[in-house]
Amino acid sequence: xxxxxxxxxxxxGRDALAAALGISPIVAQVLYNRGIDEVDAARTFLDxxxxxxxxxxxxxxxxxxxxxxxxxxxxxxxxxxxGDYDVDGITGVSILxxxxxxxxxxxxxxxxxxxxxxxxxxxxxxxxxxxxxxNVIITVDCGVTAIEPAAKAKQRGIELIITDHHTPHTDDxxxxxxxxxxxxxxxxxxTDETAYPNPNLSGSGVAFKLAxxxxxxxxxxxxxxxxxxxxxxxxxxxxxxxxxxxxVPLTGExxxxxxxGLRGLPHSSLAGIKALIQSAGLVGKKLAGYDxxxxxxxxxxxxxxxxxxxxxxxxxxxxxPDEAVRIAANLEQQNRARQVVERKITEEAKRMVVEQGQDxxxxxxxxxxxxxxxxxxxxxxxxxxxxxFGRPTILIAIENGAxxxxxxxxxxxxxHEVLADCREHLLTYGGHAMAAGLKIDVAKIDAFxxxxxxxxxxxxxxxxxxxxxxxxxxxDLAGLNERLVADLARLEPFGAENSAPRLxxxxxxxxxxxxxxxxxxxxxQVTLGDGRARCKGIAFGLAKLLPDLLDHRRCRVAFRPIINxxxxxxxxxxxxxxxxxxxx
Length: 584
Hints:
Distance between the termini: 18 Å
Number of strands: 22
CATH class of the largest domain: Alpha Beta
Number of helices: 20
Largest sheet: 5 strands, parallel
Shape: globular
Number of domains: 3
CATH architecture of the largest domain: Alpha-Beta Complex
Mean pLDDT: 94
CATH topology of the largest domain: inorganic pyrophosphatase (n-terminal core)
Helix content: 40-55%
Low-confidence stretches: none
Radius of gyration: 25 Å
Strand order of the largest sheet: 3-2-4-5-8
């Protein structure tokens, strides 16, 4: 289905802002599209400062948690970090592990097995850790819905500290229901009833702020000692991995941490980070958000999907350099295996959508279930299916009469609210507006699917399902130069709510014959001109449009300008994401 290009009108103040900041008017337009139209705000966005990170004392629960953690360290209590198995949890656990080691503790960590135990901390895990002598359990990136496990911890005499950023459950009257434990959470009211300024902090971000609070408590002052200062600077890299990978908004405080963390990752002192960067082929390179999202994070995630995520935490914490390299190689193998399984399930899922008629105009959400699907990769596949059909998608892997599901959503269909409305059909559920997980009895899948379809019909309109491509600005080919690419790069890191700028051209003519390229011939290489300038372009995965391009010989393209380096020569080219052709 052709995408509807959404192009904002040119902002009248773009030239003035560009002149004030010494940037391209195109970048000024992009900033305006992101809601930034003042010089000071734009300057802050382009040059994020660590000094602007909110102090940890503002984070609800952080000060009390730091007090209790340091007291536990001083009494020699056994502290166990219980983390989620995704990148956000892995990096958050690693941050707190290093912090507690600096504070004088000997912390242990527990990462649940994705397939055998599922998401979050359960009562069985509490019993296991209690039997093993745990005195304090600190959750990372999970726990805010753990009502029964919190009660079990109290019964077993364990002090439970929950650090999380997910949406808590509510009762039938809409009242928030929280576990009976000390909770550190950016979305909960602070003790003085003032909200934390950044409710979208990731799980690793929460761990970073708590580590900062612990460092202040240990040092007895807001200005921490050099060893803690160096650790916190290093920890921004770990936090950046979680922030970008967890797709939280890359604005405000999240942007500051991610910006400086990305800059620091190549220089990290951690053997695990060095091994991870080496395995991804990124040694000596300046890192961008793309490198986390498509190279580093998938390797960390893969081990949790295909094996056990504790290996990734081992690599980022206690592994010596040689062992870190071995683990990184294992992560690479698991990532390749994940890609094979993912491709197989994706093709099967797409076929099922059509066979079951869930791509019909009257169906506004997709729910698929199948035996034999790997529960560790269905979240990624759900994202692929959502993108293909433009509908919220939930995939359920069935094994031994039980279903484990993962969903990805679109605007105006917040999954955490929708699943709450369907909770009568579910065993457990949790997550965010755009991504969530669940467990379900197989016998209830049909009723659950019907409920989701009904809610989608109520909440979504046909317009919500129409694929849209948001364009930042329309440009001439003559304006595509290295300075523009450099200016646009200042908007990095890209991610949620700060997507990579997408530009569009006016009508262009073919200047040379286009051709399909790539090992499988799936990509399209073109050269386009407007009568005054020419520019090469590459359209990944769009070779299927070659007949249309040859038929029309004219097009508009949506693209990102990129630098191509070949044989020592640099040139600006277009990475094309979509074509428009004239009506005949």
